[in-house]
Amino acid sequence: MTRTYLIKPVLDHHYPAITHGEGIYLYDSQGKQYIDGSSGAVTASIGHGVQEIIDAMAEQSKKVSFVYRSQFTTEAAEQLAKKISEIAPGNLNWSFFVNSGSEATETAMKIAIQYWQEKGMKTKSKIISRWMSYHGITMGALSMSGHIQRRERFELMLESYPSISAPYYYRDAGHRTITECDDFYAQQLEKEILRVGKDHIAAFIAEPMIGAAGGALTPSDEYFLKMKDVCDRYEILFIADEVMTGVGRTGKMFGMEHFNVIPDIMATGKGMSAGYTPIAAAVVSDKVMEPILNGSKIVMSGHTFSANPQSAATSLAVLNYIEKHNLVENSAVNGAYLKGKIRELAEESEIIGDVRGKGLFVGVEFVENKLTKKTFDRGLDIVNKIVEANFEEGLLVYPANAGEDGLTGDAIILAPPLTITKEEVDELVRKFAVALRNVEREVLGKLLKK
Ligand code: PMP
């Protein structure tokens, strides 16, 4: 193999080179076609090679690609912020642009802390989060995440913010009703607030539906109402991490819209530009901005590339495209169709324990025993096997881990572009079924020999 100069995720792994993409398909240099069943990392929401976006990008680069936010504003950034205030629920009217989901959640965290400072409550600086969570890879964002693998090397440098359980009914509801589970989760939040002291807590952060750390784990309709009630009683802000669930992914524009709770601050990224260029945002409510506008008048954060016009114009074109083509609706309709098809497969399958999610955000959890919900041996690395078997068939699926201990759940997420048609869903499901059978044959064969 010729030498590489690129640090890739796994250094001794061979990654095929993608030469081009069109719609839901990607093509590698050997001519192999892949269905982008995960939109990359749940990002390429409108599919690949969309001419309208390419035109908008070219148009903006002919005008100006970069200006520095400390010196100028631009029409592109202003228009994008206006658009987000229109599509975001409630009065989440202010956008702070950054370049990645990690920066968005970390900015949200800093703004939450600043909010309390401006109100004279300077000790409110900790964040409560859930062990099953992923909010990003930078130190602040990782401090809020319970993702063991991503934390362990840096544990000594991180804050121990994540502490409470996330709703995981598939495993928690065995001896309890969903309502009892929700009450338990809300009590945990309350206990944690009382333990740390409400005067030390700035915010509670949660993904509406858990992605990388849960495999599209979906709460009940009441869960967030109960959690928000606790936050309100103890004067704690609520940050929704919509980096994965935002912009149509779950069949609503933002995931929290399913749960009738409006966050004080929202982080969004990924699908916001559908991967055409890096951009993300902390979207802030009028309530949170008010003391800042009346106080220091500066939000203490920012990056060189924040609000750059090239990314802003691209994201604006993507949001307009999503609206024009009713892609949120398509996500709801074809997502329900996809989940139904996977549920049919699950009935036949000996290793699919749970199928969950909303819209085109479908999680599939694998177990060795469907009755006892026993997980596979760690050594078997079942998630990787599933991902590779699908890759072999030309279908990309997103690996996820569920379980606070890193042991209790093995899942993947299906999250194809929101543009996917019913026929393309059928094609995706056919490939998934073949891969599933191949893995089943291999692992069940091994189990019989044990
Ligand atoms: N929050 C959530 C919910 C995510 O899924 C991710 C990315 N998987 C992030 C934050 C971090 O985003 P990024 O990788 O763009 O930094």
UniProtKB/TrEMBL annotation:
Entries under PANTHER family matching the protein: AMINOTRANSFERASE, AMINOTRANSFERASE CLASS-III
Classification via Gene3D superfamilies: Aspartate Aminotransferase, domain 1 (3.90.1150.10), Type I PLP-dependent aspartate aminotransferase-like (Major domain) (3.40.640.10)
Top-level taxon in the UniProt lineage: Bacteria
Name of the protein in its database record: Aspartate aminotransferase family protein
Molecular function, one GO term: transaminase activity
Residue ranges that the Swiss-Prot or TrEMBL entry lists as coiled coil: none
Pfam family, one: Aminotran_3
Family classification: Belongs to the class-III pyridoxal-phosphate-dependent aminotransferase family.
Organism: Siminovitchia fordii
Keywords, comma-separated and alphabetical: Aminotransferase, Pyridoxal phosphate, Transferase
